[in-house]
Amino acid sequence: EDKVVQSPLSLVVHEGDTVTLNCSYEVTNFRSLLWYKQEKKAPTFLFMLTSSGIEKKSGRLSSILDKKELFSILNITATQTGDSAVYLCAVDRGNNDMRFGAGTRLTVKP
Amino acid sequence: DAGVIQSPRHEVTEMGQEVTLRCKPISGHNSLFWYRQTMMRGLELLIYFNNNVPIDDSGMPEDRFSAKMPNASFSTLKIQPSEPRDSAVYFCASSLVWDRPNTEAFFGQGTRLTVV
């Protein structure tokens, strides 16, 4: 059975800290891995990763994929209270048939 | 484009009633997805369509759930009869697939369903 496992399930840090969120997967068909940020509304897209070893960056966020070891990490540096959210990892098995992990709930305290 | 539009935003209904959730995908997107989000199970894919054709409905929990996509700009998810355990947030998402593989899905704001 395909599965996507995120860790930790929840994380509490203080502003300025750096966090690393993990996502491991086992799927029969892999097309890409996606990271979403979900606050009180719908998930918003962060990154799509298709190739190993190529880091994607957007401001203080970055992510990388390891297709050999079947995992990805999402890094957030210099965290801010606005980063508080649930971060979802999803694996696209083709045609956006995605399987989501349970998410990591990040709380950033002032 | 206004993005993926879902209606209603909130729905409260009594057990046994029929519930219909609606979704308008982003214009030009070829794929549409229905997800359900609960505290216990997280975000689950229920069904998805490519070019209005249902491709995979293996995530639909049981026969009480049905989904249709009569045209490229509209889809419905129906629950009949509804049960309290159906209470969840239902998301619709769309993506452009055939012309641009490996594109992200864009989510609607969700419909919060409460069955009492």
Task: Itemize the secondary structure elements and their pairings.
The complex is a heterodimer of chains A (110) and B (116).
Chain A: E1 3-7, E2 10-14, E3 19-26, E4 32-38, E5 44-49, E6 56-58, E7 61-66, E8 71-76, E9 85-92, E10 98-100, E11 104-109
Parallel strand pairs in A: 2-11
Antiparallel strand pairs in A: 1-3, 3-8, 4-5, 4-9, 6-7, 7-8, 9-10, 9-11
Chain B: E1 5-7, E2 10-13, E3 19-24, E4 31-38, E5 42-50, E6 53-56, E7 65-71, E8 74-79, E9 88-95, E10 106-107, E11 111-115
Parallel strand pairs in B: 2-11
Antiparallel strand pairs in B: 1-3, 3-8, 4-5, 4-9, 5-6, 7-8, 9-10, 9-11
Description:
The complex is a heterodimer of chains A (110) and B (116). Chain A is mainly beta and 110 residues long. Chain A has strands spanning 3-7, 10-14, 19-26, 32-38, 44-49, 56-58, 61-66, 71-76, 85-92, 98-100, 104-109. Chain A is built from no helices and eleven strands. The termini of chain A are far apart. In chain B, strands 2, 4, 5, 6, 9, 10 and 11 form a seven-stranded mixed sheet that branches. Chain B has a four-stranded antiparallel sheet with strand order 1-3-8-7, with no helix packed on it. Chain B is globular. In chain B, 38% of the residues are buried. The A-B interface holds A 31-32, 34, 41-45, 48, 50, 88, 90, 92, 95-103 and B 31, 33, 35, 42-45, 48, 50, 55-56, 91, 93, 95, 97, 101-110.
